[in-house]
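Tokens for Tetratricopeptide repeat protein. Go.
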Amino acid sequence: MIIGDTAQILLFLNRDFLLNLDLQKNLQRAVINNRQGNFQQAIANYTKAVELNPYYPIAYNNRANIYSHIEKYEQALADYNKAIQLNPNNFKAYINKGLVYYKQGKYEQALVQYDRGIEINPNYAFAYYNKGLVDQQKGNKQQAIKHFLKAGNLYKQQKNKVFYQKTLNQLRKLRKN
């Protein structure tokens, strides 16, 4: 090995390390800003992160979650699509994309996304819960009950007491009507 080669390798490694460090800082800042309700700043942090590494699907997914929260649905869908393109097995991106469609009243499109998420992870209770909400909105009481029961069983198995109770409340509400 030639000394010049070693210097070039070291320079490259240092540059790569600094870029990764900057990426991690922006991701951490984004999480903090999001938790504090500084959504525009969190979006800016995630934007910087994807500029540093455009192949990091979690950054797109998390930025999309914020866009969805502040009702910028087209931006959210674009970011969810990018996250899915980078990682087609990211079941949460499909579920989150379904939530955007649900918020827009596009129930059939929401169901398609929930089903895609379930294909990847059939034990993700939140997907069944969301399907129940769609069915409830569409007036499909029996389908809603079926999906809430599935969600409830999964939440119970996973010892998620909060969402198990939330699901039971939805079932009670449905059965009263």
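The first helix runs from residue 3 to 35.
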